[in-house]
Design a protein that fits this description.
This protein is α/β, with parallel strands linked by helices. The protein is built from ten helices and ten strands. The protein folds into two domains: about 150 residues, Rhodanese-like domain (Oxidized Rhodanese, domain 1), CATH 3.40.250.10; about 120 residues, Oxidized Rhodanese, domain 1 (3-Layer(aba) Sandwich). Strand 7, helix 7 and strand 8 form a beta-alpha-beta unit. The relative contact order is 0.16. InterPro entries: Rhodanese-like_dom, Rhodanese-like_dom_sf, TST/MPST-like.
Length: about 280
């Protein structure tokens, strides 16, 4: 069943009123690259939204793949999500501590990839929540396991080979990185074999879609203006990419808000493409 595009977000005001509703499950998806010496799980234990459990994108991932936080199998996702106390009947709310909520955006996308559309991102994340002096707690939540059934949606995921095929067939590839990382003049926290971007990609930094003061996603009319200014036609197929498959999910969420629900995210992103000697690169 299709959902209203507005369902992709919930406000802090709404969530504060529905914290104890049956069927609401909240995930703290805070993630940091190891080079930052920060740890999302440690921050969760320090303070988190009442009733929330921690979701680690590096653990709910294909651990056999050397690339960062690649999608797990449907079976593994279902098992790990079930251990977090989530069932298919639940409305899942995701948030993190990053400006804009990029890691939570990936978790939003992951649930949709595995057939669960009843998922929304907390607009403004933990930062807006705490600025408003909404409640938080320190005690970790240990949920009772639940049963979750996952069904993989291949149309929401693109491999590097599929990205190449999509470009050749006229699809638009949108890269969510900042301009310096897109053109290879600014190093990334990930160690890439090559710098630059996939030839034919359009650069639309995901941070341009977020209010700089509040961290909330821009309203639909402003989002549409950003995509239009970048030369992106919402009526044509779109694939999103980035450094490691995180911020590209924020582009997918923004497009979902604009009524484009079947955007494919390049899971391996530049982390994968840069290692493939047979794939071209541009600066």
């Amino acid at each position: 069943m299709s959902r209203d595009p507005s369902d992709a977000l919930v406000s802090s005001e709404w969530l504060a009123q529905h914290l104890t509703d049956p069927g609401i499950k909240i995930l703290d998806c805070t993630w940091h690259h190891p080079s930052t010496n920060l740890d999302g799980r440690t921050q969760y234990r320090g303070r988190h939204l009442p009733g929330s459990v921690h979701f680690d994108i590096d653990q709910v991932a294909d651990k056999s793949n050397p690339l960062p936080h690649m999608l797990p199998t449907a079976e593994d996702f279902a098992h790990k999500v079930g251990l977090l106390g989530i069932s298919n009947a639940d409305r899942v709310i995701v948030y993190d501590r990053h400006y804009g909520g990029s890691a939570a955006g990936r978790v939003w996308w992951m649930f949709r990839v595995f057939g669960h559309d009843n998922v929304a991102l907390l607009d403004g994340g933990f930062g807006k929540w705490t600025k408003e002096k909404q409640p938080a707690e320190m005690t970790p939540v240990r949920p009772a396991p639940a049963s979750f059934m996952a069904s993989f949606r291949p149309e929401l995921v693109a491999t590097s080979a599929q990205v190449q095929d999509a470009l050749q067939s006229g699809a638009q590839l949108v890269d969510a990185r900042g301009p310096g990382k897109f053109d290879g003049t600014q190093p990334d926290v990930f160690t890439f074999k090559r710098q630059g971007h996939i030839p034919g990609a359009i650069n639309l930094p995901w941070a341009d879609l977020v209010d700089p003061d509040t961290g909330v996603l821009l309203p639909p009319d402003a989002l549409a203006a950003r995509f239009s200014a970048a030369g992106i036609d919402l009526a044509k197929p779109i694939v999103t990419t980035c450094a490691s498959g995180i911020t590209s999910c924020m582009l997918a969420l923004a497009l979902y808000r604009l009524g484009v629900p079947t955007v494919a995210v390049h899971d391996g992103a530049w982390a994968e493409w840069s290692q493939l000697d047979d794939m071209p690169a541009a600066a």
